[in-house]
Design a protein that fits this description.
Helix content: 25-40%
Structural class: alpha+beta
Strand content: 25-35%
CATH architecture of the largest domain: Sandwich
Largest sheet: 13 strands, mixed
Number of helices: 13
Shape: flat
Amino acid sequence: MDYSKFQVEDFVSDEYFVKWVKRPNGENKAFWTAWMSKNPESAERIREAREIVLQLDFKPNLPPEGKFLEVWDKIAKADADNLRSFPHVLAKTALQDKKRGQNRRVLYGIAASVTLLIVFAFISISIRSRTLEISTAFGESRTVFLPDSTKVTLNSNSKISFAPSLLSNGSREVFLQGEAFFSVVHKDNHEKFIVHTGELNVEVLGTKFNVNSRRGQTKVILTEGKVRLNMTSNKQHPDVIMAPGEYVAFAKGKLTRKTVDTNDYLEWRNNRLVFVGTSLQDIAQMLEDNYGYEVSFQNDSIRNRKFTGSSSAVEIEELLEKLSRVYDLKVEKNGNKVLLKQNKKSASAAD
């Protein structure tokens, strides 16, 4: 990381810098001490950034939902064209507040309201018609807490969006593109929590479940509690009530339901990929959806082979190496394009 060009707001939104300020240890203290000695011209920026980070040292409990909405109204009045990264907005707001000598309570209120978004992930958000979006890039996963304290872990290349008003009007609602694991907090008034996808709605009161919505197909895995599935794309289909350990997939009006080992589907949260009799074609689609790869095959016989095993969700080269060894394949990689071919010796033997 080249910190020499960092401005104050960049330091404030850098996870390693924040960790050094709030939770110093031998490693990060040695790094920043050495870095500052080599970059004395950055001393003032470091000092201001440290001051701001320490001001944002809030308690871990979320504010009341009403307070979140109050703060959100203040944020929504800002110039939306300038909101590219919320951590940067907080930093710039702090700097402006300091220069003007104004009371910083407004800044503290904003910071306290979104503290867990900052602590758990520096996620870009934008204001579009009062809608909050939280997203991940290819190969990235993030954990965030919504204003109602629901915990959401987003898988790679995924996005949830919601209007703050939808989290406090008697029916909590979010919209999902991609994959996410939800740990929903049950409310005393039994307020529903609904996840909308293009194919169905997942309705819960308080439970833990995983939703994957890609390529016109939605898959739901329930680990705890109970959920109701409403098929939005097929109004004639009756609602489905799921029990823990069940897997439901819905696509093109067809529903598949079975009991599974949920751990096989949720290891992505631990940066592991688990496959059980998964075709190489399906693995290729996962690599495209989650990592941005374009995978092609020399022939259909390779495409239709089934793979059972696990691999790192971070080091994709490990997965490609395993497929190469198991099926004696040659992996040709050029940028984000991957071609799987049969080794010539194997092909000759088969002939």
